[in-house]
């Protein structure tokens, strides 16, 4: 009998498996991942931003938690954090949900650094469309490095890792234990365990058997982020224009390129979570026609040099968020212990640094 089976080898599943061995004294932990490698899905296909609060002027709690978590993330994953670029936040003049004044007040409240930019940087922006530009403190992470670190630590501590293995169902076994059934090499295998941690992000509710589903409602977006080579004038910069139908450009250290995302064009489609609509299946069968031309055309209105980016390819991924945060863009964690299946937890972290919020929750759980 396993102490725990962790389903989903993204950043969350990997960190929870490590936590159970390191901090809770578990001896037999298995991590099951449907892909051929760990951290291959949302934990790789994202904008690689280590949030520091700026992005969430409409959700004080998320902004505040980001401020608390960023220093911990830098301390725990120093080799994965990239700081060698200049991060700018700008406020759009029209259709922004915050004004420059409100943004300044908000950054002051959360204690985040906001400085004026030199004229040489300001002139990269179109003044008729941009109200203000600020120098900020925000970093990127190298998702390949993070994956390597996770794999090394898991191997070192002795977590069993099953790759290319998809869990299909979760069952109750009497009062004391649970089991998962997974498919491996075309065979169906059942394994018993005392605890289950469901860390499958977009796949949280895609199990048959006794799994009751999460109470928190989820929504999925099929997203595209373009990977581009920046022209010389923009190399070494990260830029986010707030707060509405605008855009972000961030270094993507795992490929030595930048991601370009646009609030209007990055989501290709969205739908409410349903047990019979498998998000992974949906993405696998999607045609993936890029919208990079539309992104570049719009962004170049705000920053003319963007017209000269070189498109390389795109990261397509399903982004899963909580329905309740559609309006405020907040990214709290989902952490549920299922009443019908004691010792089975579902976890979703809206962003990478939320892992510390999850570990704090776990600290308070009677897990032994
Ligand atoms: C487009 C986009 C941009 C983002 N930008 C940022 C950002 O800039 N900064 C930030 O902090 N966060 C960002 N995020 C959010 C961040 O990527 C996620 O919060 C984080 O990666 C979630 O980690 P995870 O381990 O829960 O998910 P994942 O990394 O997706 O891990 C879940 C794993 O479960 C596996 N799995 C699913 N079902 C099964 C099954 N039945 N059996 C076995 N394995 C299964 C999957 O293959 C996957 O590897 C972004 C996300 C997206 C999609």
UniProtKB/TrEMBL annotation:
InterPro entries: FAD-dep_OxRdtase, FAD/NAD-bd_sf. It holds the Pfam family DAO. Keywords: Oxidoreductase. Coiled coil: none annotated. The keyword Translocase does not apply. The keyword Oxidoreductase applies. This is FAD dependent oxidoreductase domain-containing protein.
